[in-house]
Write a structure and sequence with these properties.
The structure holds two protein chains of two kinds. By secondary structure, chain A is α/β, with parallel strands linked by helices. Chain A has helices spanning 2-27, 39-45, 55-63, 77-82, 99-110, 122-134, 162-165, 173-198; strands at 52-53, 69-73, 89-90, 114-118, 140-143. Chain A is built from eight helices and five strands. Chain A has a five-stranded parallel sheet. Chain A starts with a helix and ends in a 15-residue tail after the last helix. The relative contact order of chain A is 0.10. Chain B is of the alpha/beta class. Chain B has a domain at 33-144: Rhodanese-like domain (Oxidized Rhodanese, domain 1, 3-Layer(aba) Sandwich). Chain B is 49% helix and 9% strand. Chain B has ten helices and five strands; from the N terminus they run ααβαβαβαβαβαααα. Chain B has a five-stranded parallel sheet with strand order 1-5-4-2-3. In chain B, strand 4, helix 6 (115-125) and strand 5 form a beta-alpha-beta unit. Chain B is elongated, with a radius of gyration of 30 Å. Classes of the chains: A alpha/beta, B alpha/beta.
């Protein structure tokens, strides 16, 4: 009797362990979205001129009607409805990994088309671009300007707003020199007077002078 | 019965060997793409130039300002108190050591906020904590703090206060030209100690 019980328990244990392993393997799902670039590779991407589209290139692409390039608008739907590039597709930042958006990018990849991401500023399209590239979409390019610059109705648009928001250094060091150069001499001149001011000469009270209670 | 024991042991050993040969995973610390996207959509990483200036003036010990521009640009002009980690050398051992200091608020800045934001995204992916971006970058900082524009006479008090704060901050960092004229003003304030006359002194009492 004892022997029989022991055997039964062992059989149950074997079946149990095998079941757990099978269930584990069946339910094991690899994450849908994975990084395909290492941090070092994504860092190298930042200095890659082939991954970006400058405002000048973009205006040429907009006139091009071969359909090789599709503009993706990452602004919110309100801004998109107010105005956008002809034939642009609206995919907001937070919907980037939604099923529909993923399908759009996969379709573009299959068709051999290039997606150009643009936002209100370059900074807005920056994150979506970097995250798409890191998760393996190689056909995604970043527009390095602001939406305003893509507005062809405005002939002056290419140069508008560019300096303030791009990475071009705008520091006018002459202005700084004007501030700091005379200041140094000023400080030096001011110093002796300052120290003089601090000097305290104690006046001893004469013992005889003061009456008291 | 023995067979069953061996089967059990075999399964366990097979699993153990499997774990042994599994690829090393250094991705455990990484932020998953979905979470990274949510973080990108959240503007709370942006700190304003005025906030940073305020913390610099107050010498906040938890603030670490990181200039991610090229070394040449950093040498030409940088915000006082900032350290230079060019974006290219972000993954070097020395840079990682600096960035991994948990108790510091690491604030990235570049000329605008494009490079700094890209740096932030890569750091965020690698799971770094307490990282921020200075909105507008050093261009905005220079044009609002060093070249602060005086608001119109009719501007609200807040605008006037902000302007005065910016001018004071600029003087704090770089000094000011007005100080060259200061000595005369200071001289006026010289305190001359007048000895009490003996006549007055004699008349002490309650």
């Amino acid at each position: 009797m004892d022997e029989l019980n022991k055997t039964n328990r062992l059989t149950i244990a074997v079946i149990g362990i095998v079941l757990v392993i099978i269930i584990g393997l069946v339910t094991l799902r690899r994450p849908d979205i994975k990084y395909s670039l290492t941090p070092a590779e994504s860092l190298a991407l930042l200095n890659d001129p082939a991954s970006v589209i400058t405002p000048v290139q973009a205006t040429a692409l907009m006139k091009d009607s071969s359909g090789k390039t599709v503009f993706i608008d990452v602004r919110n739907s309100i801004a998109f409805d107010r105005g956008h590039i002809k034939n642009a597709v609206n995919i907001q930042v937070r919907e980037l990994f939604a099923k529909k958006s993923k399908a759009t990018f996969l379709d573009l990849e299959k068709a051999g088309q290039t997606a150009v991401l643009y936002g209100e500023t370059q900074q807005q399209a920056n994150g979506p671009w970097l995250i798409l590239r890191q998760t393996g979409f190689k056909n995604v390019l970043l527009f390095t300007g602001n939406y305003v610059q893509l507005d062809i109705a405005n002939s002056d648009s290419l140069t508008r707003l560019l300096p303030q928001l791009s990475e071009t250094p705008l520091i006018d060091t002459a202005a700084l020199k004007a501030i700091s150069a005379p200041a140094k001499t000023g400080k030096d001149a001011a110093q002796p007077v300052k120290s003089e001011k601090k000097k305290v000469t104690p006046v001893k009270k004469e013992a005889s002078s003061g009456g008291g209670c | 019965m023995n067979k069953r024991y061996m089967l059990l042991a075999g399964i366990i050993i097979a699993l153990g060997v499997g774990i042994l040969f599994m690829p090393a995973k250094d991705t455990a610390k990484q932020t998953q793409p979905e979470l990274l996207l949510a973080a990108i959509d959240d503007p709370s990483r942006f700190l304003s130039t005025d906030d940073i200036t305020d913390r610099l003036v107050k010498k906040d010990p938890a603030l670490m300002l990181i200039d991610v521009r090229y070394e040449s640009q950093f040498k030409a002009f940088s915000i006082p108190g900032a350290i230079n980690i060019p974006a290219d050398s972000l993954l070097s051992a020395s840079a990682q050591e600096i960035l991994n200091q948990k108790e510091m608020d690491k604030v990235f800045y570049s000329n605008a906020d494009v490079t700094s934001d890209q740096t932030w995204i890569i750091c965020k992916r690698m799971g770094l904590q307490r990282i921020y971006v200075m909105q507008g970058g050093v261009n905005k900082w220079f044009n609002t703090i060093v070249k602060a524009e005086k608001p119109a006479e009719t501007a609200p008090t807040e605008a006037m206060d902000l302007y005065q704060f910016r001018v004071a901050a600029c003087q704090h960092f770089f000094g000011s030209p007005e100080m060259a004229a200061a000595p005369k003003v200071v001289e006026k304030q010289k305190v001359t100690v007048v000895k009490k006359t003996s006549g007055a002194a004699s008349g002490g009492g309650c």
